[in-house]
Design goal:
Family: Belongs to the mesothelin family.
Strand content: under 5%
Pfam families: Mesothelin
Structural class: mainly alpha
Keywords: Cell adhesion, Glycoprotein, Membrane, Signal
Subcellular location: Membrane
Number of strands: 3
Radius of gyration: 28 Å
Protein name: Mesothelin like
Low-confidence stretches: 1-36, 500-525, 573-577, 580-626, 632-695
Strand order of the largest sheet: 2-3
Length: 695
């Protein structure tokens, strides 16, 4: 923030810029201060593909129009997958430079984040068709933008339709995944092709799918005429078929499909959730079809014959041996020698409990460590006392038990405690391997026992789903780990995921005596429109994309129509996104940003952040803090630090390692920052030998 700009803003608001705007020095990897030479832009993009993945808002904002255009086109040509915060910022820059009209040469994912008021009516169908090739899950935290996109799509069709035709469906593509159940039922049967692109179906959509399949109007025909090829062509949609429909399918066809589905799951090409949903529905149909048969004698004799190793290799094993027969026909020696192939089947929960009970008889003193990695799918069934009987000495054992999402809170703490009892510490590599969400389920004592050096090696873990009490503990641990960093910018880079987490309740209780030592002074007045536009710069469009977020919505409701117009927003949310609407005048002239912003961007709160957290803060803090985290959790950044002096506050992202495999839109990088408070406010820290290790 320049000296001139600082004079216009209170010290607290200036600090707010420091805490929320992820700016950097203008020299980033692949970008010089002069920007890319236009004639070399395409060549640069081709030779530096990895830098396209590390797109960062601030250096890109320095590019002139033709160079930015070349950058966006290169991303489309090379099919670079960007994260939500990157796409949102890039879309804002494209709108600023008037590049949206070139949408046919831009990545489909980018179109999802465009200012939809700037879509010309003549381009509506072409725009919708290309946007529908994108991944709408990137808009998971932006329901307003997702709903606006659907309104644009329907407007292209001339308004909502009673029945979506085949040509309508071709235009809508993946956008059908946001349609309600009635629209799916009434649509042309070729809607199945659209639904195959959906990541998941809601319960009403699942019911609509089964209604459509039962009608016999799809290419599969009525259920009695279904064949193996037709069912396999459904892909994951077949896992949603209800038990009532499976009862109508020819037995031979159903069994063939069951075997092929289990084989696909065992080969790792079908998720556990999809496989178990299918198996549960299919076996329920089978059980109901024989429920009227005469009951056999009491007791639980083995009717199918003893289970052998060969039996367990059969993909129809679960059809031939229900959970009752599994208990009766599975001997201890076979179980002990064939635990792995048994648990490779998508066992229903009842069958899992049978296996657990048998293991307790085989291993009365606890499952031995060499077998523990094999029972990861069962770990949620074990109590703390039962886990206390295990011997957990290997990092690989911990990862096998906790890397999946099966283990719950009690199991996580118990497994880690057994490991700590033997090894004494949790390494940074182990923390990365099991994921940041596991920190949420560790006890405060276990978190405090992590060595600062190992916490630094773990870097920025995703703790967005943690309860506030655990976030407070993690914030304290982060301060301990990164507190001796040489520069304030470097400290912020590492510390950013943990910043502000414990500040809200402490600020609320600070009272007249002032803020606690870990909390900066913050302004109590509400942010003006001018404050917000200055803070957000070209990213003011993010307000529109997230306007239903409680904090943002509350602030927007306090504004009159004129103020909303200044922000580029309409007072009527339903009317914001029709094609051909005249967009309000841009807040920033093309190619220039407000003084003091330097292209800083802000994004919003991640899923899992407790609503009460923001409620403690004055709106002047809550609004920008909320915008920071919804799209932005962590960011890959630059290789050099920005300087700190009395005139400039610059937050900067350090070069982050490649992200771990996981959900798109999140980055596992290494970030840290040091803050020290002197009499005149916040000042840079002193140098430290730790900085060599961290840098």
């Amino acid at each position: 923030v320049s000296r001139t700009h600082r004079a216009q803003v209170s010290p607290g608001l200036a600090l707010l810029v420091w805490l929320t705007a992820h700016c950097s020095c203008p020299q980033a990897q692949g970008f010089s201060q002069e920007g890319l030479d236009a004639s070399r832009a395409d060549l640069w993009a081709s030779a530096n593909a990895s830098l396209l993945h590390s797109f960062w808002c601030q250096p890109a904002s320095q590019l002139p129009r033709d160079q930015l255009s070349a950058l966006i086109r290169a991303m489309a040509t090379r099919r670079v997958l960007l994260r939500a915060w990157q796409l949102s910022c890039l879309a804002n820059l494209a709108a600023l430079h008037g590049l949206q009209d070139d949408f046919e040469l831009h990545p489909p994912d980018l179109l999802l984040f465009y200012n939809l008021t700037q879509v010309r009516e003549a381009d509506c169908r072409a725009f919708t068709h290309r946007a529908a090739q994108g991944d709408t899950e990137l808009l998971a935290n932006l329901p307003d933008q997702r709903a606006a996109l659907q309104r644009v799509a329907l407007a292209c069709l001339g308004g909502p339709r009673l029945r979506l035709s085949a040509s309508d469906l071709l235009l809508l593509g993946v956008l059908v995944c946001d349609m309600d159940a009635s629209s799916i039922v009434a649509a042309d049967p070729r809607v199945l092709q659209n639904l195959q692109r959906c990541r998941r179906l809601t319960a009403p959509q699942q019911a609509a799918l089964n209604t459509l399949l039962a009608s016999g109007e799809t290419t599969l025909g009525p259920p009695g005429s279904w064949n193996l090829e037709g069912l396999q062509a459904l892909g994951p949609l077949a896992t949603y078929i209800s038990s009532s429909l499976w009862m109508q399918v020819q037995q031979a066809v159903g069994l063939d499909f069951f075997g092929s589905t289990v084989a696909t799951y065992r080969a790792g090409r079908l998720s556990q959730q999809d496989a178990r949903r299918f198996v549960t529905g299919f076996l329920k149909a089978k059980a109901e079809s024989v429920s009227s048969r005469p009951k056999r004698a009491t007791g639980r004799p083995c009717l199918r014959g003893d289970i052998t190793a060969a039996t367990l290799r059969d993909d129809l094993f679960l059809v031939r041996y229900d959970c009752v027969q599994l208990e009766s026909c599975l001997g201890s020696r076979v179980l002990e020698a064939n635990l792995d192939p048994l648990l490779q089947h998508p066992l229903p929960a009842e069958c899992q409990r049978v296996v657990k009970a048998k293991l307790a008889r085989v291993y009365p003193r606890g499952v031995p460590e060499e077998q523990l990695p094999l029972i990861a799918s069962l770990v949620y069934l074990y109590s703390r006392s039962e886990i206390g009987q295990w011997n957990v000495t290997s990092r690989d054992t911990v990862v096998a038990l906790l890397a999946s999402d099966v283990a719950l809170e009690n199991q996580t703490e118990a497994v880690l405690q057994k490991y700590l009892d033997h090894n004494g510490t949790l390494t940074g590599a182990l923390l990365v391997a099991i994921g940041g969400s596991r920190l949420c389920w560790m006890s405060a004592r276990q978190i405090q026992a992590i060595r600062p050096s190992e916490f630094r090696l773990a870097g920025a873990l995703d703790i967005s789903s943690c309860p506030q009490s655990r976030k407070d503990v993690l914030y304290a641990k982060a301060r301990e780990a990164f507190g001796s960093t040489r520069t304030t910018a470097a400290y912020y880079r590492f510390m950013r995921p943990y910043l502000g987490l414990p500040l809200a309740p402490k600020l609320a209780s600070a009272g007249p005596s002032g803020p606690p030592p870990t909390a900066p002074s913050l302004p109590s007045q509400s942010l003006s429109v001018g404050n917000v536009t200055t803070l957000l710069g070209q990213n003011v469009g993010d307000l529109q994309k997230a306007r239903s977020h409680p904090t943002i919505s509350s602030w927007l409701r306090s504004l009159n129509r004129s103020a909303l117009g200044e922000l580029g927003l309409d007072s009527d949310p339903a009317g914001l996104s029709g094609p051909g609407r005249t967009a309000p005048p841009p807040l920033v002239s093309r190619g220039r940003l407000p003084a003091g912003t330097d292209g800083c961007s802000l994004h919003v709160l991640p899923t899992g952040s407790p609503p009460a957290h923001l409620g403690y803060l004055p709106l002047s803090v809550a609004l920008p803090s909320g915008l920071l985290w919804l799209l932005y959790w962590g960011t890959p950044g630059l290789s050099q630090d920005c300087s700190w002096d009395t005139r400039t506050m610059a937050s900067e992202d350090g070069a982050a390692p490649a992200p771990r495999a996981g959900k798109r839109g999140r980055v596992a990088g290494v970030h840290h920052v040091r803050r020290s408070r002197g009499p005149q406010g916040w000042s840079p820290p002193t140098s430290s030998s730790q900085d060599t290790e961290l840098e």
